[in-house]
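User: Reviewer 2 asked us to show a designed sequence for the structure in our supplementary figure. I'm pasting the structure tokens here. Could you produce the per-position amino acids so we can include them in the response letter?
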């Protein structure tokens, strides 16, 4: 990997991680089209640490309040308010992806990187987004989050293990189907992504710094640079997305995904790019 490649991939990660357009798909597509190789699942997972640090900083007050409330509520029933419940909801929502992510690690790093699969998932799940927006009642805010919401969104987060689906898109759509308003669905989506992505990134550190012979080989400095860039652009994209979804639907992202997925399919059909 060259330094320019690490800069480009870090920027792609930061700009796309929180948008419902699949950052892993964009990392894979950009790597193949621009560099004619794959940056690898481990590099992608580690660079996501930068964007998750952006989440930690952006939601620092909320996260700290939830942690304090959760620990206080363990021993004091009178302090078991909304933040205490949200703490448990995050834990519940994280369990499914921890289990499935561990079980399907090898598939995620091999078959899951295929551009045929990625382009099809980009298109297929665009219609899930459209259905969620059409079905959504948006009658409940984050203060009315339930155990059922957490479980449903946690299961939906597992779909993000497939590049092209989008973690935020899958979980936010699940929240809309459950009756949450769009901003509440995205906010909780960010919260449940924190333990999952941090865990994935830390677990992949050993592979990113000691990669196999396949794909682009990144040095420690290049990984750090990509992560820092992802952090800066990721922080900006969080603020933009939360403002955007307050007044706009996910239909715009669905349209973009269909166009991108169709374009990649066209390149694959004509043999312009290789699927692996």
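Assistant: Here is a per-position design you can include in the supplement:
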């Amino acid at each position: 990997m060259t330094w320019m490649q690490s800069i480009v991939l870090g920027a792609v990660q930061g700009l796309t991680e929180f948008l419902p357009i699949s950052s892993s798909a964009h990392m894979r597509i950009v790597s193949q089209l621009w560099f004619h190789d794959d940056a690898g699942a481990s590099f992608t997972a580690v660079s996501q640490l930068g964007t998750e640090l952006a989440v930690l900083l952006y939601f620092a007050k909320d996260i700290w309040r939830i942690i304090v409330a959760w620990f206080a509520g363990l021993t004091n029933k009178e302090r078991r308010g909304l933040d205490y419940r949200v703490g448990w909801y995050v834990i519940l929502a994280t369990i499914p992806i921890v289990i499935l992510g561990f079980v399907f690690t090898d598939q995620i790093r091999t078959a899951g990187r295929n551009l045929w699969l990625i382009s099809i998932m980009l298109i297929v799940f665009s219609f899930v987004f459209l259905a969620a927006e059409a079905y959504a009642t948006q009658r409940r805010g984050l203060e009315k989050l339930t155990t059922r919401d957490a479980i449903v969104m946690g299961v939906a987060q597992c779909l993000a293990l497939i590049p092209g689906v989008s973690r935020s898109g899958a979980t936010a759509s699940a929240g809309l189907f459950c009756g949450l308003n769009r901003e509440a669905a995205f906010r909780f989506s960010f919260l449940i992504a924190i333990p999952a992505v941090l865990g994935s990134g830390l677990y992949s550190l050993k592979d990113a710094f000691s990669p196999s012979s396949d794909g682009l080989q990144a040095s420690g400095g290049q990984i750090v640079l990509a992560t820092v860039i992802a952090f800066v652009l990721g922080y900006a994209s969080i603020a933009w997305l939360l403002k955007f979804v307050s007044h706009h639907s996910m239909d715009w992202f669905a349209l973009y995904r269909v166009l991108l997925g169709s374009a990649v399919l066209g390149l694959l059909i004509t043999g312009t790019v290789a699927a692996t």
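For the response letter, you might also mention the following. The first helix runs from residue 3 to 16. The radius of gyration is 18 Å.
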